[in-house]
Amino acid sequence: MSLLKTKDLRGKSDRLLEHTFFHRPEDPIPRAMNVNTLGEVPDSSWFTNRIGVRPMSLEELIRGPSKTGGPDISQPLTIIAGKSVGITPGFTLQDSRGDTYFIKFDPRAHPNLSTSADVIVTKFLYAFGYNVPENYVAYLQPAYLRIGPATQVTVEGGKKVPMTREYLEEILSSTSRLPNGSIRAVASRQLRGEPIGPFKFQGTRGDDANDIFPHEHRRELRGYRVFCAWLNHDDSRSLNTLDTYVSDGDRSYVKHHLIDFSSTLGSGSNPQRQIAPQNLRAGNEYIVEFKPLLKTAVWLGIWERPWRQANYPYPQFAEIGRLEADFFEPHDWKPEYPNPAFDRMLPEDALWAAKIVAQFSNEAIRALVHLGEYSDSKAEKYLADTLITRRDKVVRYYFRQLNPLDRFRVVGSTLEFKNLGQEIGLATPEAYEYEWFVFDNDSEELTPLKERGETKQPSLNLPESRADYLMVRIRTRSRLQPLWKKSVEVYLHTAD
User: How many whole angstroms separate alpha carbon 383 and alpha carbon 373?
Assistant: First the structure.
């Protein structure tokens, strides 16, 4: 007999104006469309199941998407393009191996802030299952930087002009330098394939025949909100995504990536669009949100937004920026702009993501934070401790919203499962109430069987019925967790 499926029953593409005023979720919001019969997200060009379905060693977590180890800085590096627009200036270079990297720096006033965040969050997102670039902390010697003969820089308005050594020195003068003269940067290796632009968080790509599920109804994009809340990725919008057209032998397809994580953790930008510690609003309120604006007006400015009282470590840990865990509540977290996929996240989407978050041990979190190469060990410890507390809040909140039964398997003549909420200490169930049915796979009709009752153990005896398909409806009785009373349906196929 094999397990067939489980189901929980529960009663410019990114413009501010578009997402603030013109998109409204359906009522009722439909279930995610790209999940399989087990409620899982199958591997695809969007997402590859990793830590959510199998253990990942510390070595594998630390390696993440890395293949090259970063640019070869032992030989001269050739700058092939430059830019002066965006949050921070930077350029594109090629190393002696011919690999291309996009280079961005921390500003002089905030060393390590964004480069650390970019590298750390890349590793987390890869472990979750997303496609991300290879991002590295790199230490560049200005004397090893060469400007290619045809190199141009894009300036405001999109105009391109030849890049000069003077222009390069101007860029480098705004960055902080180490005692040995090197400059710290984040080096992001060029993604494989031909870039074809960002993806939206709603609709589908008209030029991609494989893109059949509206993006707002993809579980990995809905559940992305949970991950972004944990890591405070408030700039999680279309602008920070990139699709590429890749070829593997005789097979070609569009691959969907998340990119640019400089506005994560405690790193953000100031009103001048320069790298700076996250502002107080980040994660707590949209850039434009009418309810708090009206409330402030009605109270003539007397009412103070609660998040202004949050206890941030900045400037005590300047290289961490502003990130805290005491005020943070995962269900209240918000990105800079409304996100169509986030706004359609259902409890089962959030539970899927929270189960992945729960797989990160304290040791794993500390190992990934260490990759930020912070100069202050106390700052590194603060960040790891904060992420551990935020993880616990994410997991405990979403494990309360639904019946957190998981890891179903048939062993001999019993159906075994785990209560994830009990495993993290939310409550000890008083009993599991169950009811068996015969399931007609053609008509989807259910016929009740006599086997029903309750058990104190997370295992059920299989019924005597030899029907091809069975279904059992399980409720968890707990006075401490009343929402666990919601049903989980488990479908089984009796054929070997």
Answer: 12
CA nearest to 231, candidates 97, 373, 130: 130
Amino acid identity for residue 356 in this structure: I
Give strand pairing partners of 107. 175
Number of Cα atoms under 13 Å in the Cβ half of residue 214: 13
Structure tokens at 285: 């309120």
Backbone angles phi, psi at 81, to 5 degrees: -165, 155
Distance CA 133, CA 122 (A): 7
**Helices within 108-223 (DSSP H only):** 113-128, 165-173, 219-222
> Cβ(370)–Cβ(379) under 8 Å?
no
Give the helix/strand (H/E) hosting 387: helix 377-401
Q: What is the mean pLDDT of residues 221-229?
A: 98
Record the tokens describing residue 202, joined without a space. 């709603």
Question: Which segment of 22-26, 335-339, 456-460 scores lowest on mean pLDDT?
Answer: 22-26
| C-beta neighbour count of 359 within 10 angstroms | 18
pLDDT digits (tens, 9 = 90+) for 54-105: 999 999 999 999 999 999 999 999 999 987 655 566 899 999 999 999 999 9
Residue 33 tokens read as 């469309």
* Residue ranges of E strands in 14-89: 77-83
Beta-carbon neighbour count of residue 405 at 10 Å? 23
pLDDT at position 21 is 53
Confirm if 100 and 37 have CB atoms less than 8 A apart: no
Residue 474 — φ and ψ, nearest 5°? Answer: -120, 135
- For residue 489, give the 3-state DSSP assignment: strand
On whether the CB atoms of residues 311 and 326 are closer than 8 A, the answer is yes
- How many Cβ atoms are within 10 Å of 91's Cβ, its own excluded? 25
Q: Which string of DSSP letters, residue by residue, matches 436-476?
A: EEEE-TTT--EEEEEEEEEESSSEEEPPS---SEEEEEEEE
Question: Where does 164-251 have alpha helices with state H?
Answer: 165-173, 219-222, 224-231
Report strand pairing: 194-197 vs 241-248.
antiparallel
Alpha helix (H) residue ranges in 40-174: 58-63, 113-128, 165-173
